[in-house]
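chain below, 79 aa
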Amino acid sequence: MLKIRLSRAGKKNMPFFRVVLTEHTKASKHGYKKVLWFYNPISKEFKIRDVEEVKKYIWQWVQLTPRMLKLMEKNNISV
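prediction:
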């Protein structure tokens, strides 16, 4: 089953997250299929590449993690 979830990157005390499409059994740092968005929790910046692409994946039964649902609601992105 495919999931859309966060993958942490960045230095110590300077987190940076990628929103990735990955298989649920694999580690989120390795083996992801595609990077969809970027999220910087320090500046609260949420860079979106293509919302329509994410909607397409959700129509194809890709699941969002609970954290991703919260981030999307907070940034007024509906799917």
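The mean pLDDT is 87. The beta strands are 2-11, 14-23, 34-40, 45-48, 63-64.
thats it, cya
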